[in-house]
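On clarity, I found the account of how folds are encoded harder to follow than it need be. Since the whole study asks how a given chain folds, the encoding of that fold should be made plain. The format is easy to grasp once an entry is in front of the reader. For illustration, here is how one protein appears when written out as sequence plus structure tokens.
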Amino acid sequence: MRKLSKAIIGLALAEAEREAQAQAVEAQPNASDSPPSAKKGGRHGA
């Protein structure tokens, strides 16, 4: 019973880590897209 519990907890932790990594990958391109779009609309020195 203890081994089964540890295995289930390990699977749940691994799944949570995969989900966190997937969210980090999704958020990464959005963060890099923001600065160029902010520069496109700005008129610096005009």
About this structure: The CA atoms of residues 31 and 37 lie 11 Å apart. The chain has one helix and no strands. The first helix runs from residue 2 to 41. Residues 1-25 form one domain.
